[in-house]
Amino acid sequence: MIDFRYHLVSLISVFLALAVGIVLGAGPLRENLGNQLAEQVEQLRTEQDDLRTQADELETEKDQLASFITELGPDLVDDTLTGTRVAVLTDDASTRAGIDRITALLEDAGAASTVQIDLQPALWEPDQEQQRSEAIEEIRDIAPSVLGDGSTSSEQLSAVVVALLSPPATGELTPELRDQLWQVLTDHQLVAVDGEAPAEVDAALYASAAPEELTGGTEDDAVATERAQSLLSSQTALLGALAGTGMPAVVSAATPGNDATTGILRTVRGDDVYDSISTTDRLQEADGPVLSVLALIEQVRGGAGAYGTTADAEDRLPALPETQGVGEDSGGGEGPTPSDGGGAE
Q: Tens digits of per-residue pLDDT, 170-228?
């Protein structure tokens, strides 16, 4: 049996340990621990300030280079696309300002003609299936060979747009038939053509809006998901058909917040199917249209690449003879590294 003195000694030991802990914690240990924590906090604060300074410097350099590219734009592209017929396609009116600048730069580049084609929501909206089916039936009566084998009406009609812009594989697609097919697409409000219906072109530039511009703000999750899938299906069908033609082509996308993790740019840059197509981000920025036209120039010369400032861009701008030294002259860091075929004439 344990006697009372054992319990007494145990209690005294516990209280002595508590007392020693309190004394040490309130004295030398507290001071030492406090100093260590204060030093760590100060070090973290210094590192944070350094990182903020570096980020500000990089942002300033990026802005300087963007301004430099914008100012030099007309001179950089001057007479680089002489005689080229270009189609500019878009999926939303929010890209209008960027497209206007692209069109002006194409004129500076000496393009023979520029036609703008607005892809309308009826081309992919889930509730417009009847409208698309009617258009397909009319096209089948006129020139069935342009329909292809898309699995949905949206995919088939998106590919038709590319077929009407491309040189025909055979002599079947006459100018008269092209006019009739464009009329079907416009009558069913699947596309809107700025000016006369275009004949075949030599190059194409697809200007895509920011993802938030292509969604309905009041849609529930199920409707929004269906709509997004249908839109992506239409976009990928069109760009897949464009890649298949071998025509020089560029996808230029608006990337608010320098974010390319959503929208068509992510799909194109992440799939080997579209490797032949160049991509640019920053369409909404002042230098975005310049990047787009420079990328198209590189495409016409046989090169391709992914350009801009988002994380998945390969270079800031194409390494053309016209752009050599742009980065150094503007104080924006090293110049662009060469891309495949970028300097070929």
A: 567 888 999 999 999 999 999 999 888 888 999 999 999 998 898 866 667 888 889 89
Longest CA span, the chain? 114
The Cα-based distances of 76 to 205, 243, 303 in angstroms read 18, 26, 17
Buried b (16+ CB within 10 A) or exposed e, 197-218: bbebbbbbbbbbbbbeebeeee
Strand partners, 249: 204
244 burial type by CB count under 10 A (0-12 exposed, 13-18 middle, 19+ buried) = middle
In angstroms, the CA 115 to CA 127 distance is 29
Q: What is the pTM of this model?
A: 0.78
Give the separation between CA 191 and CA 158, rounded to whole angstroms: 10
The SS3 of residue 142 is helix
User: What is the rounded distance in angstroms from the CA atom of residue 88 to the CA atom of residue 113?
Assistant: 11
Amino acid at position 20, single letter: V
* pLDDT tens for each residue of 95-149: 999 999 999 999 999 999 999 999 999 999 999 999 999 999 999 999 998 987 7
Tokens of 230: 């249908």
Contact status, residue 87 vs residue 117, Cβ threshold 8 Å: yes
Any idea what DSSP says for residue 35? H
Residues paired with 88 in a beta bridge: 116, 205
The one-letter amino acid code at 183 reads Q
Q: Residues 313, 126: contact at Cβ < 8 Å?
A: no
**What is the distance between the alpha carbons of residues 185 and 135, in angstroms, rounded to a whole number?**
7
Q: Based on the number of CB atoms within 10 Å of its own CB, is 338 exposed (0-12), middle (13-18) or buried (19 or more)?
A: middle
Sequence spans of domains, the chain:
51-329
Where helices occur in the chain by DSSP H, the ranges are: 4-26, 28-77, 96-108, 129-142, 153-165, 175-187, 221-245, 264-269, 288-300, 326-329
* Residue positions counted in the chain: 345
